[in-house]
Amino acid sequence: MVMKKRMVSGIKPSGQLHLGTYIGALRHFVEVQDEYEMVAFIANLHCITVPQDPAELKKNLTDCVALYLACGLDPEKSIVFLQTDVPEHAQLGFIVNCHTYLGELNRMTQFKDKQAHGEKNLSGGLYTYPPLMAADILLYSPDFVPVGEDQKQHVELTRDVAIRMNNRYGDIFTIPEPKIAKVGARIMSLTDPTKKMSKSDGINKGCIYLLDTPKAARKKIMSATTDSLGQIKYDPENQPGISNLIQILSSLTGDRPFAEIEQEFEGKGYGEFKRAVADAVCALLEDIQAKYNAIIASGQIETILAQGAAKARAIAHPKLKEVQRAIGMEIVEK
Ligand code: AMP
Ligand code: TRP
Predict the structure, then answer these.
(1) Is residue 195 in a domain?
(2) Which pLDDT tens digit goes with each residue over 114-165?
(3) How far apart are CA 289 and CA 131, in angstroms?
(4) To test the ligand 1 pocket, which listed residue (150, 201, 210, 243) has its Cβ within 8 A of the most ligand atoms?
(5) How many domains does the chain have?
(6) 76 burial via Cβ count (<10 Å: 0-12, 13-18, 19+)
């Protein structure tokens, strides 16, 4: 039997999944699942690196699993599970942490940005977030890690530390590569198209959540910030708002070339263009939400997660043992 190549990725269940997460990451998990063995987990360790409300987190976890499935992840083909159901993640996380230099952690922009914003009481977990992410990846020896642009640096760190550990202990890890789509790897906020669309936007009009009503989503798109140039042109420098909407429309309509979209809307107003974007987004939300409701009603989530965790552990556990043995942390009597 020919073994499928593997991909690994995760999403944090902090807040609700949004259109940026879908376009930048989740849709790619679904696209690859016939060709690759897709290991898709819910990063419920990473999400507690910033404070979470327990009741809200619990709800977000369920929603996150249901949305994975509603977006098309098939638990028969892909491995879907919660990070904490596979304790090997935290165990290898500590080991990788011990091989990561402070200088490397200090260079991570995600942490630096939070610090620069003057956020108080940042946790140790936030600082050591990247080695845990490296462990998530290395446990499964994937060829690729499909992520949005903002995670590239973390995957690069994963490669650096894996190479370092391989040099020291022999070839224990496969060196993974980030897989970042050309279009949609950084969807911007609708209200401030110089900033990434993000969960931390709260109920902000800049972010479309996958569970927003189509009516609310349409309103957000129709009031998205644009410019006064009056042309539909992909030019992120001078027309960041319009360029972002072009990316969204292209991503949701089979990656249509930007030039084709520009041509279709040549000489037409922003209102007409925004309506087309809103139609595409609403069609997506309606489809996802119908499936989401069916999944929640089915009561299948726990079973699916238990089966996913068992499949994941069957890969992760031997890898952890192999690493511990290579490091000399285990007594192997023979
Ligand atoms: P997170 O929700 O932060 O755990 O991110 C989950 C995945 O979605 C990661 O691969 C991110 O890079 C990707 N992602 C998050 N926000 C965006 C965005 N605005 N545009 C594109 N990809 C994103
Ligand atoms: N850090 C990722 C994010 O914020 C989530 C994540 C955790 C992840 N572990 C991972 C992504 C492993 C890819 C592979 O989006």
Answers:
(1) no
(2) 889 888 899 999 999 999 999 999 999 999 999 999 999 999 999 999 999 9
(3) 35
(4) 150
(5) 2
(6) exposed
Q: What local confidence, expressed as pLDDT, does residue 40 receive?
A: 98
Report the pLDDT value the prediction gives residue 204, as an integer from 0 to 100: 78
Q: How far apart are CA 10 and CA 79, in angstroms?
A: 11
Residue 247 covered by a domain: yes
The verdict on whether 334 is a catalytic residue reads no
pLDDT in tens, 11-46: 999 888 999 999 999 999 999 999 999 999 999 999
**Residue 319 annotated among the catalytic residues of the structure:** no
Residues 281 and 308 in one domain: no
274 included as an active-site residue: no
Within a domain: 147: yes
Same domain, 222 and 163: no
Are the C-beta atoms of residues 274 and 217 closer than 8 Å to each other? no
191 inside domain: no
Ligand 1 atom 18: the closest Cα is on which residue?
Answer: 20
Rounded CA gap, 259 and 246, in Å? 10
Please give all residues whose beta carbon lies within 6 A of any atom in ligand 1, as ranges: 11-12, 20-21, 23-25, 147-148, 150-151, 185-187, 196-197
- Name the pTM for this structure: 0.96
pLDDT of residue 117: 87
Print the domain residue range for 267: 214-294
